[in-house]
Design goal:
There is one protein chain. About 13% of the residues have low confidence. The strands form 2 sheets. This protein has an 8-stranded mixed β-sheet with strand order 4-3-2-1-5-8-7-6, sandwiched between helices. The longest helix has 23 residues. 35% of the residues are buried. It is of the alpha+beta class. The chain folds into 2 domains: 197 residues, Class II aldolase/adducin N-terminal domain (L-fuculose-1-phosphate Aldolase); 102 residues, no CATH class. Helix 3 crosses helix 6. It binds zinc ion (ZN). Zinc ion binds next to loops.
C-alpha cells in the first residue's frame, strides 16, 4: 500500500508538471485540456474541471474508477474524462491520456485536414501519422466514436475535428511528448505548405522508417499516407538518392541546369510512364556513387556560400 501511495504522489506531481508545460506552450487557454493516468486496474488519476492547467497543485487532482465514479478528491472530474476512459478500455497498453488544443494542430483539425503525410522521420517512426476524427460533442460518446471505430488500435495521436488533439501513451510524459510532436509536425507542415511544396517520402522510404520502429522501441504507430491524389496540391516526392521507381525518376529528370530546383508537379508527371505508373530507371553502382558524390559536392558548396 505504501508503494502505491508513493506511486500516486509521483503521478500527481507529474500531471501538474505537464499541466504547466501545456499551458506555457499555449496548447490550452483558460481551463481547457485534461490529463489522466491509470494508477492501477481500476483507478484513474485525473485533472479536475474548471482549473487552468498552468496552476494545478497535486491536491486538486481527482481519482475516479473505470466507470467514471469519483473515488477521491474535493474537486469535480472533467466531463471529458469519458474520452480518457474510452481509451483505457480500448487499449489496455495505454496508461496515460493527454488532451489539449494546440494552435497549429487544432487549426488543421478546424480546416478538416489530417496530418497524415510522410514528411519527417521522427513523426513517421513515432506516430505514423495523425488521423482526423469526425466531430463529436465534447463530453459525449460521439466525441470518441470515430476514433474507436477506425483508429484507436493503430494510432497514438488523433486530431478531433473542430476541437483539438488527444494523445495516448505508456506514461504521462510519453503522452505529452506525442502532443509536442503533433504540434511541431503541424507547424512544419504549415510552413512547408506556405512555401509552396510539401515533399513526401517515397513509399519505400516511408516503409524503411516504419520498419525502423523496433530499433527505437516504438511499439504502436500506424502507417502514414503512401498514395496521393491529384487533389493533393503541391505534394511531391522528396528528392532522394535514386533507387528505383517514382523518386528515382523525378531525380533523374533534373538536368544540371535545374537540379537545384525542387521537383515540380510537371516533372513528377513527366516521370510517369504512359500507363500512368512510375517509370522504372535502372541505375548502376558506379552511377549511384557519382550521384552521391555530386550531391555531397553541392551540399559542401552551398554551406560555403
Ligand atoms: Zn477539449
Amino acid at each position: 500500500m505504501a508503494e502505491q501511495t508513493f506511486n500516486e504522489r509521483t503521478m500527481r506531481e507529474e500531471i501538474c508538471e505537464i499541466g504547466r508545460r501545456i499551458w506555457h506552450r499555449e496548447y490550452v487557454a483558460a481551463n481547457d485540456g485534461n490529463i489522466s493516468v491509470r494508477l492501477n486496474a481500476n483507478e484513474i488519476l485525473a485533472t479536475p474541471t474548471g482549473v487552468s492547467k498552468g496552476f494545478l497543485t497535486p491536491d486538486m487532482l481527482v481519482v475516479i474508477d473505470r466507470a467514471g465514479n469519483k473515488l477521491r478528491g474535493t474537486m469535480k472530474p472533467s466531463s471529458e474524462l469519458k474520452m480518457h476512459r474510452a481509451f483505457y478500455d480500448a487499449r489496455p497498453d495505454v496508461r496515460a491520456v493527454c488532451h489539449a488544443h494546440p494552435l497549429t494542430a487544432t487549426g488543421f483539425a478546424v480546416a478538416g485536414l489530417s496530418l497524415d503525410r510522410c514528411t519527417l522521420p521522427e513523426v513517421v517512426i513515432t506516430l505514423g501519422s495523425v488521423p482526423l476524427a469526425k466531430y463529436g460533442v465534447p463530453g459525449s460518446d460521439e466525441l470518441t466514436q470515430d476514433i474507436l471505430d477506425n483508429y484507436v488500435q493503430e494510432y497514438d495521436a488523433f486530431l478531433l475535428a473542430n476541437h483539438g488533439v488527444v494523445t495516448i501513451g505508456q506514461t504521462v510524459m510519453n503522452a505529452y511528448y506525442k502532443m509536442e510532436t503533433v504540434e511541431h509536425f503541424a507547424k512544419i507542415s504549415l510552413v512547408a505548405r506556405q512555401l509552396g511544396s510539401e515533399n513526401v517520402f517515397s513509399p519505400e522510404r516511408a516503409q524503411e522508417l516504419m520498419e525502423a520502429r523496433a530499433r527505437y522501441g516504438v511499439q504502436a504507430g500506424g502507417s502514414c499516407r503512401i498514395e496521393y491524389k491529384d487533389k493533393d496540391k503541391n505534394v511531391n516526392y522528396a528528392p532522394d538518392v535514386p533507387r528505383t521507381g517514382f523518386g528515382a525518376a523525378a531525380y533523374a529528370g533534373a538536368s544540371d541546369d535545374n537540379a537545384n530546383a525542387r521537383p515540380s508537379a510537371q516533372s513528377n508527371n513527366a516521370a510517369n510512364g504512359s500507363n500512368g505508373k512510375p517509370a522504372e530507371i535502372e541505375i548502376g553502382e558506379e552511377e549511384l556513387r557519382r550521384i552521391i558524390g555530386e550531391v555531397a559536392r553541392r551540399v559542401a558548396e552551398s554551406l560555403q556560400k
